[in-house]
Amino acid sequence: MGLFTRPLGYPPLLTAMRVLFLSAWFPFPPNNGSRIRIYNLLRGLAEQHEIHLISFADQPDANPHTPEVRRL
Q1: Which residue among 7, 37, 39, 44 is least packed, with the fewest CB closer than 10 Å?
Q2: Is 32 part of any domain?
Q3: Does residue 54 belong to any structural domain of this protein?
Q4: If DSSP codes are grouped into helix, strand and coil, which group holds residue 64?
């Protein structure tokens, strides 16, 4: 049984969860190990759940990659 599989006999989850994802790194562009992992976790969670991301910014200006992350 894998890490994210449910045991036999358990009903599937029917409702999506609202998830608050806190990260020390903004996940886009996914150009290093930390960002790649965060990006893939968010992408996987977003398939069935409503995700809200809070992360630190590298620069004080708005991040130009925000639209790409919103599309997840």
Answers
A1: 7
A2: yes
A3: yes
A4: coil
DSSP states of 12-61: PP-SPPEEEEEESS---S--SHHHHHHHHHHHHHHTTSEEEEEE--SSSS
Amino acid identity, position 49: H
Give the pair of three-digit tokens for residue 34.
């930390």
> How many domains is the chain partitioned into structurally?
1
For the stretch 10-63, pLDDT in tens is: 666 667 889 999 998 888 888 999 899 999 999 999 998 999 999 877 666 666
Q: Which domain holds residue 59?
A: 18-70
What are the beta bridge partners of residue 23? 55
- How many other C-beta atoms lie within 10 A of the C-beta of residue 51? 19
